[in-house]
Design goal:
This protein has about 400 residues and is of the alpha/beta class. It has 2 domains: about 30-55 and about 295-390, Aspartate Aminotransferase, domain 1; about 75-290, Aspartate Aminotransferase, domain 2 (3-Layer(aba) Sandwich), CATH 3.40.640. Helices cover about 40% and strands about 15% of the residues. The protein contains 15 helices and 13 strands. The strands form 3 sheets. Strands 3-9-8-7-6-4-5 form a 7-stranded mixed sheet, with helices on both faces. The protein has a 3-stranded mixed sheet with strand order 1-2-11. A 3-stranded antiparallel sheet has the order 10-13-12. Helix 9 links the parallel strand 7 and strand 8 (about 235-240). Helix 13 (about 295-310) packs parallel to helix 15. The longest helix has 18 residues, at about 295-310. Residues about 395-400 have low confidence and may be disordered. It binds pyridoxal-5'-phosphate.
Amino acid sequence: MSRSFPAQDALIGRLDELGTLSQLRRRRIQNLPCSPAMLSDEQPMLGFASNDYLGLANAPALIATAQAAAARWGVGSGASHLVSGHTEAHETMDQTLAEFTGFEAAIGFSTGFLANLAVMPALLGRNDAIFADRLNHASLVDGALLSRAELHRYAHLDLQALEHALAQSRAKTKLIVTDAVFSMDGDIAPLPALLELAERYDCWLLVDDAHGFGVLGPQGRGTLASFGLQSPRIILMGTLGKAAGVGGAFVAASQVLIRWLEQTARPYIFTTAMPPLLAACVTRAVELISHADDRRAHLQALIRSLHAGLAGTRWQLLPSGTAIQPVIIGGNAEAIEVSRQLEACGIYVPAIRPPTVPKGTARLRVSLSAAHTEAELGQLCEALRALSDLADLSDSEPRA
Ligand SMILES: *Cc1c(COP(=O)(O)O)cnc(C)c1O
């Protein structure tokens, strides 16, 4: 092995430290397309771990679209949007997403993380302020920091704290930003009240609907649609790698806002346009989503079955009505132990630990999909009920 040097030794020490805190993560190698049936590090598993909420990631209709679009467009786009990478497939995708979400215009991004890095720096600078829910997704935190605007993080869902901060602010341009469905708790932001505050204090409202798009609202049009909200102040970010089953993301808003992003958003301008075949798949996925009431109804039935199945056990679900169903465990080592015990029964539910969630709230994050059957959900409930009756799993927790 080559000789180390002090900066690298420091990394080795920090990795060791993560190991001691049970915070080291391991990538398992998957050998099947995304579906509840997994082959994970060569082990057959029943998975409750994907964001493929409608079961579209591996849908025959989308595979056929991808094949036809590859034949039509080839694979790569070859350039960024403003140079020569913006194909008719991208243009159709943008228009389809605008129409589906009920906004004047939309613009596609390569990933949701990039979209969230794009919006705030394009709209705000040093004399401005951002007001963010403390449990917002990491990409929103980074996007806010990148803008150099003053960042106020309010306690989760605490509208009073938010209003207090807004009332005190003397910033020129202000923006409130929130996850619509919080990615680790599965609860939903009070979007009508947030819009009211945005109007009262003259702010933009940026809503990240990564987990609501395709799942909530009439025809799966998203969380804003489920509340019937519309306003030129609202900027919607939606991801296309979750319920849509493809990959990428979009921002939908007023015509003016979208044109501004197209002209100034660096993560839009200085990156290669997504492969046109994926844009074609997204357009098809939106059509599938809008006709997927049966899949959404099945997903809701699975959520009810999970809550009924765990009633009376030690496993407390958060009051989430979305596909994200966390079981709070507490300690890191205990959460890992429960996940490991499930794995021994052939069921994969990831343990989510700090820093992804606050300290002391390590959890199992059960993700449900319309691709799960009631029988598969029954297997999960049965395994968890059996573990619930076992001796104290927290015995494996290292003592402070
Ligand atoms: C997944 C997710 C993102 C990032 O989207 P990608 O397309 O996966 O990069 C952003 N925000 C939230 C709330 C998410 O859950």
